[in-house]
């Protein structure tokens, strides 16, 4: 029996979760074999993804029912805008991708599909639906960063993706992921029930599948 909602949802969606965190894109980051063009395509799309995700976090402030929940959601928005966005722009600059390129890029269909699903889930549902839709993103990259950092040679200077792995395995992002797990439980406490679990699992499963599609978009360099 899982002790927190995130682990319970992950367990209920084991095949989809593994397809996400063990995607060929992730493995190729770990061993350095990912084509550079795929990584750069992914990085540009991820910038657009994070901007839309910031809107979803802003929606969480609106959907909050108490001041305490508003503060939790506001801290989550701040972590995205100030910590992860800075991490991302730093990575892009390291790859010679300037702000002008990021701002001119059109959204790929996988970016549209994922971000609009999260926003739509939040608009239609309540705060817990929205937090569950955001959980694979926030918490999944913490798990991926940690497991990649443990791959022998992954953090060596010879791996062109060592900086990306180090950012997501680092204390800054790991703290964001841990906080997201704790926030999910706090938001769930007054709202979750066995009757709701099936619907929440469906939301979590779809968001996890959209994460795997996002990696695939990078691999295919799809528009
Ligand atoms: C698509 C995606 N998913 C998750 C993360 C990590 N917050 C991200 N940067 N991009």
From TrEMBL:
**Superkingdom as given in the UniProt entry:** Bacteria
Q: In which pathway does it act?
A: Cofactor biosynthesis; thiamine diphosphate biosynthesis
Q: Which Pfam families match?
A: TENA_THI-4 (PF03070)
Q: In its UniProt record, which GO terms are filed under biological process?
A: thiamine biosynthetic process; thiamine diphosphate biosynthetic process
Q: EC?
A: 3.5.99.2
* Cellular compartments per GO CC: cytosol
Tell me the ranges covered by the Thiaminase-2/PQQC domain, including all copies. 14-220
Which GO MF terms does the UniProt record name? thiaminase activity
UniProt keywords (A-Z) are: Hydrolase, Thiamine biosynthesis
InterPro entries cross-referenced by the UniProt entry: Haem_Oase-like_multi-hlx (IPR016084), Thiaminase-2/PQQC (IPR004305), Thiaminase_II (IPR027574), Thiamine_Salvage_TenA (IPR050967)
Reaction(s) this enzyme catalyzes, per UniProt? thiamine + H2O = 5-(2-hydroxyethyl)-4-methylthiazole + 4-amino-5-hydroxymethyl-2-methylpyrimidine + H(+); 4-amino-5-aminomethyl-2-methylpyrimidine + H2O = 4-amino-5-hydroxymethyl-2-methylpyrimidine + NH4(+)
Family per record: Belongs to the TenA family.
Function per UniProt:
Catalyzes an amino-pyrimidine hydrolysis reaction at the C5' of the pyrimidine moiety of thiamine compounds, a reaction that is part of a thiamine salvage pathway.
Query: Which NCBIfam families does this entry report, sorted A to Z?
Result: salvage_TenA
User: What's this protein's name?
Assistant: Aminopyrimidine aminohydrolase
Organism the protein comes from: Pseudoxanthobacter soli DSM 19599
Q: What is the lineage of its organism?
A: Bacteria, Pseudomonadati, Pseudomonadota, Alphaproteobacteria, Hyphomicrobiales
């Amino acid at each position: 029996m899982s002790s927190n909602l995130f682990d319970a949802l992950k367990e209920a969606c084991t095949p989809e979760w593994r397809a996400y965190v063990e995607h060929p894109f992730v493995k190729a980051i770990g061993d350095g074999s990912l084509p550079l063009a795929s990584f750069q395509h992914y990085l540009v799309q991820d910038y657009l993804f994070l901007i839309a995700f910031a809107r979803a976090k802003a929606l969480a402030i609106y959907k909050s029912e108490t001041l305490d929940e508003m503060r939790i959601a506001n801290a989550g928005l701040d972590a995205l805008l100030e910590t992860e966005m800075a991490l991302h722009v730093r990575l892009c600059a390291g790859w010679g991708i300037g702000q002008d390129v990021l701002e001119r890029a059109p959204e790929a269909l996988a970016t549209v599909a994922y971000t609009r699903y999260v926003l739509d889930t939040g608009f239609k549902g309540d705060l817990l639906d929205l937090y569950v839709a955001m959980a694979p993103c926030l918490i999944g990259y913490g798990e991926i960063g940690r497991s990649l950092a443990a791959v022998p040679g992954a953090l060596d200077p010879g791996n062109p993706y060592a900086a990306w792995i180090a950012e997501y395995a680092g204390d800054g992002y790991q703290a964001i992921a841990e906080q997201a797990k704790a926030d999910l439980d706090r938001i769930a406490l007054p709202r979750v029930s066995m009757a709701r679990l099936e619907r929440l699992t469906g939301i979590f499963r779809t968001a996890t599948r959209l994460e795997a599609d996002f990696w695939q978009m990078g691999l295919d360099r799809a528009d």
